[in-house]
Design goal:
This protein is of the alpha/beta class. 33% of the residues lie in helices and 25% in strands. The protein has a single domain, classed as Glutaredoxin, CATH 3.40.30.10. The protein is globular.
Length: 118
């Protein structure tokens, strides 16, 4: 999960973007961090998860109309494709992502080249 101040720049690589609007004072947001980090690793070829502190990046939070912390905003093709406000469970996040991830195939696994014979 990468910190960022601008979700628009993050979405340029073709992956879906899940913007995680958070605050250091938010207990529910802190409790969601580990599940979002796991999701970011699991779906790294199709999804980018970025953490946005609403106090440091109030302009971005305002642009995405974030009024509740935590808030997840799914960005697809530079448009908001979905959002969840408040603490969300892993199944709820998966339901938000599922229809959008289904349309994006997993990138092929990178295979390390075989070692040269000695």
């Amino acid at each position: 999960m990468s910190p960022s101040g601008d979700p628009d720049r993050q979405a340029e690589d073709g992956r879906l973007l899940l913007a995680f609007f958070t605050s250091e004072q938010s207990g529910p947001a802190r409790r969601m961090e580990s599940q979002l980090a796991h999701l970011a690793r699991k779906e790294r070829g199709r999804l980018r998860v970025t953490r946005i502190d609403v106090e440091r990046h109030a302009d971005v939070a305002s642009r995405f109309e974030v009024e509740v912390v935590p808030t997840l905003v799914l960005v697809k093709d530079r448009r908001v494709a979905g959002r969840l406000e408040g603490r969300a469970s892993a199944p709820k996040i998966q339901r938000l992502l599922e229809p959008h991830l289904a349309s994006r195939p997993e990138p092929p696994a990178q295979v390390a080249p075989a070692p040269a014979p000695a």
